[in-house]
Amino acid sequence: MRELTKAEEQVMLILWEIKEGLTKDVIEKMDPPKPAYNTVSTVIRVLEGKGFIDHRAVGNTHIYFPVITEDQYKHFAFDKVMNNYFENSYESLVSFLVKEKNMDMEALDELIQMAEQLKNKK
């Protein structure tokens, strides 16, 4: 799996939400100012080439749908961030959240409880 550009991610978020659609359906869900039809069509073809989406032909039109689930991409993206920025250390991640994102003690306690619950399930 490869990382998505911002434009690709925007299209994928819409396709994950609507499940399937035409290029015009994707454009309708975009915030103004809406990009040109050809721009979105190009992004869709790139996503298809990368294996993120596929299509089925209905007459002269193509209905596009995701092949990669949102959860699959979340796992990929999270693993990339963990590896590139936190050296695969959850301690570094939690430290960052507490120091840089001002995670409060209540949220930190919840995170610790979830980690303990997951640990006990193993």
Describe the structure.
- The protein has 122 residues and is mainly alpha-helical.
- It is built from six helices and two strands, in the order H-H-H-E-E-H-H-H.
- Strands 1-2 form a two-stranded antiparallel ribbon.
- Helix 1 (6-18) packs across helix 3 (37-50) and helix 2 crosses helix 3 (37-50).
- The mean pLDDT is 92.
How many extended strands?
Answer: 2
Indicate the percent of residues in helices.
Answer: 55-70%
- Biggest sheet layout: 2 strands, antiparallel
Distance between the termini: 28 Å
What is the CA-based Rg, rounded?
19 Å
Percent of sequence in beta strands: 5-15%
In round numbers, the mean pLDDT is: 92
Number of helical segments with 4 or more residues: 6
Class inferred from helices and paired strands: mainly alpha
Which residues form runs of ≥5 with pLDDT under 50? none
Strand/helix succession = HHHEEHHH
Shape: elongated
Biggest sheet strand order reads 1-2
